[in-house]
Amino acid sequence: MAFGIGDLFWIFLLLSSLQPIWQKRQIEYRRLRALQEFEQGRNSRVILLIHRQESISLLGIPLSRYITIEDSEQILRAIRLTPPEVPIDLILHTPGGLVLATEQIARALIRHPSKVTVFVPHYAMSGGTMLALAADEIVMDANAVLGPVDPQLGNFPAASILKVVKDKPISEIDDQTLIMADLSGKAIQQVQRFVRTLLKDSIPKQKVSPENIEPIIEALTTGRVTHDYPITVEEATEMGLPVTVGLPHSIYELMDLYPQPQGGRPTVQYIPMPYDDRRPMLPTPKGRPLEEPTQTK
Prior knowledge:
Blueprint: H1 5-42, E1 45-50, E2 54-55, E3 62-63, H2 69-80, E4 88-93, H3 99-111, E5 116-120, E6 123-124, H4 127-133, E7 137-140, E8 145-146, E9 152-153, E10 156-157, H5 158-167, H6 175-199, H7 210-221, H8 233-239, E11 243-245, H9 249-256
Parallel strand pairs: 1-4, 4-5, 5-7, 6-8, 7-11
Antiparallel strand pairs: 2-3, 9-10
Helix pairs in contact: 1-9, 2-3, 3-4, 5-6, 6-7
């Protein structure tokens, strides 16, 4: 049977259209295998909450991801399917998200009878930090960060709105700002009450010393720093949070299966291997060395 140029073109087009589907199935299979191996190694239920900036198909418009109601529905279902005696491992990589969704997940985590461990390979800001506070242990990379959980109203921190009302005469403040200030006070009280509930959790055991609870609430919820302030491992440990430094290597391998979509050339490149004792040698300088400049008195 002879094939013409036209037949070869349609075969090539068919294979090209099937290749992305095959690659997607392959990466999904590798993700499931990695999750299964991690669960078997720790005898736990592993849940991933990873948010990357993604692009809308065809148009290529960047779309930021965050914690949504859909996320909370899926995680709550995973927690319900987990037997009471099985620990939960939650791997977090998120900038935060909706307060309602975050609080639903956090409440479900503190109600789980067995140990809950949160792993932070890079960052868990805002709502991600709220989920970390619900864990019995927070395992972080040495360079990973958490963030404040002070409430935001629109584009403004609630604490800053209250400061405006405090510093200016009420006659110079418009009605909308006064309404925002009233909402800000309520929002801060609600967040502080909820964070206190998370930190007082004693199932399966007390995770934060009672004398550290109020200072942690003060540091995280009152707007003493900006909302994107990075709380390092050292600072989180000093606060009294149950932080452990050092992630299993399998988590880094798992994160590699959830890469940031590339819209063009990569902005970061390196040789993905440790050097050990095989460090790259610096080139030997050629030509005569430059003379040291003479200092004039």
